[in-house]
Amino acid sequence: MKARYKFLLWTAILFVALLAIAAVLGVAFGTGLPPQDQEVLLRVLASRAPLLAFAAVILLFVCAGAVKWLFVEYVTAIHALAEQTGVVLGANDTLRVATEGAREVAAAAAAVNRLAEAHRELKHNVELRMREAGAKLEEERNRLAALMSELSEGVLVCNSEGRVLLYNERARALFAAGTASAGTLVGLGRSVFSLIDRGQIAHALEKLERLRRPGEAPPNTRFVTATAADRLLKVRAAPFLDSGGAMAGIVLTLEDVTGLLDQEASRRALLQALAAGVRAPVANIRAAAENLGAFPAMGTERRAVFVSIVAEESRGLSRKLNEALREYADALKANLSLEDIRAVDLLGVARQRIESALGVAVELGSIDEELWIRADSFALVQALAFLAGRLHEDYAVRRLQFSARAVGRHAELDLGWDGAIVASDALSLWEIEPMQIGDEQTPLALRDVLERHGGEVWYHTAGPGGQRSARFRFLLPAGEAATAPARAAAGPAASRPEFYDFDLFRVSDASLALQERKLAALAYTVFDTETTGLEPSAGDEIISIGAVRIVNGRILRNEVFEQLVDPCRALSRDSVRVHGIEAEALAGQPTIERVLPAFHRFCEDTVLVAHNAAFDMRFLELKEPASGVRFAQPVLDTLLLSAAVHPAHVDHFLESIAERLGVRVIGRHTALGDALLTGEIFLKLVPLLAERGIVTLGQALQASRQTYFARIQY
User: Fold this and answer.
1) Residue 600 CB: number of other CB atoms within 10 A?
2) Strand spans (E) along 464-580
């Protein structure tokens, strides 16, 4: 029962009780009087009826005042004490209850505060011991996360229901490549069947189950699948077994083979063209040779004809082979992969290669330790080793020196030596030769490598006549120092991105209906919008959407959706003062009709959460016809949930709830910032709801509908 109704009820009870007591006393007094006195008493009471009515009204106000004093000093104070104590226990252990109300209530509040302080110290000690006990496990998890992030292959681990419980950055990049979505397609708790065809996964599971043998190593299988961006992935699937030997999940490793298939097609086409091109010349040469061998006494003129046929077809065959080699070299050049590498590391590898392959001593001279070069390290090392080999073979150079320095936006690499004089045209001739280092030969020439890098090389001498020292100087593009890979989004806390959650092994979609599932076991998308105004039905539009996912009670700060939206209308100055988004920032952004389908995919298989969700959902509802998507999943509102948890409070603004629950307010009035804040508040509300017996989604929706704020409409 609401406090107002309780107040009225107790006032009425007290008032009726006092009137009843007065009436009983009057009747008792009157029954002891003689009949004549009773008549006199009744006439007196009748004549004083207005006065008695006024006295009754005064008594009613006195009763109301007394009940109000009791409510303020005891009932309301005790109710507030209970609510604040629940917050201390369930959400914010730094909060101290207010010592208001009667002296006894204040004493109880002080005792609760002392107990809360003792509870906080005990909790702190327990958490400290738990952190110490879990330090080794966290180290192993960090090691796993670091290992996963460095793998060149994508990795997905799914439970038996097909829910993703681990992935790495490479897997997310493979499935996100070529998509225009502001959100990610890969995420914890998402269904792998939205990424890979269900039939292929089912076939792989069936095959793994059939190949599995007790006591033997787990089998694996392979298949090729296509992504939404039309890329081909080679997938290797292996089972994950539980302690009982049953299949608990599946491990998928992913490799992009789109480029490999193109290369294989080019190689086969080259071989087919080569075979077709040499068939006729070889047949002609064979026929001419057979005739020459079969008729040794052939006349001179006829013999000359056959010899000319052999010579001409041999030249044609040579041309065909040269063309094939050039095409192969072009294919190799196209496959050169440029990456940033430190100059000292590159030259260290080149030194080891030259010394082991050629037996030439190499010294590392003056090299800038902070110099980075953008290069294909393998091809460039081959080029340096090739020049070293030519110097050693043609000019008996036995000692070389490397040096490197930065020159503007380029890098100068020097391959130097002393004593030997190199011909002025030697470098020009070497540039066009296929490179050979010892017994290893490649169709690539030095000029091919330079052109691929956008670089140059020249011969440089120092001293009279070049006798003192000389060098080949390479000019190459400078690179950038390696940095950590950029993440999709970062929250205010500098924590490791959440790419795994092994607790999802225990999740089963078939176990419970959605309404009956516990709040702590559900996956959520917490979102917020920024708009041109407060009246969606009057034409206001969304200009920004921000969202973050919650899985297993954790905010996944690397799985976010953040997108500006072109509203196709002017912004009011009042709205700009609130969200700070200027019209210039929205120019060229996608419209809501393009953004909502991507946001809909991001929200799949989750419960929506927002603060004052009726406002945001009204905007989404009005755009259903234009965008072609409908958000039909359940929606929880932190405004309504806060009112259900703290009915005695009238302030349920986002900042007020955050202060009450001990949540820091960061990035307010940005869509993603408000979504993150709402997510933290929601996680604080879940245990408070559980204290009131609200543990399932259905119970939370029912409790929300019973609050006063559920009547708000837009």
Assistant:
1) 18
2) 469-477, 524-531, 542-551, 554-564
**Residues 367-386 pLDDT 10s:** 988 898 888 787 888 899 99
For residue 404, CA distances in Å to 369, 370, 419, 447, 473 come to 9, 11, 21, 20, 9
Q: Measure the CA–CA gap between 155 and 148, rounded to whole angstroms.
A: 8
Alpha-carbon gap, residue 421 to 42, rounded angstroms: 144
* CA pair distance 674, 536, nearest whole angstrom: 19
Q: What pLDDT score does 266 carry?
A: 66
* Nearest alpha-carbon partner for 389 in 365, 362, 366, 413: 362
Of 546, 553, 710, residue with least CA distance to 642? 710
Order of strands, edge to edge, in the sheet holding 399-407?
361-367, 399-407, 410-418, 469-477, 456-462
Dihedral pair phi/psi, residue 653, rounded to 5°: -65, 155
Q: Tokens for 647, please give them.
A: 């009915």
Distance CA 341, CA 456 (A): 18
Per-residue model confidence (pLDDT) at position 464: 52
Mean pLDDT of 91-102: 74
Catalytic residue among 119, 203, 410, 669: 669
Backbone angles phi, psi at 612, to 5 degrees: 55, 55
Q: pLDDT for 475-495, tens place per residue?
A: 998 887 754 444 444 343 334
Active site residue 652: no
Exposure class string for 486-524: b at 16+ Cβ within 10 A, else e: eebbebeeeeebbbbbeebbebeeeeeeeeebebebbbb
pTM of the model: 0.53
Mean residue pLDDT of the chain comes to 82
Please give the pLDDT value at position 667. 67
Rounded CA separation 123/680 (Å): 20
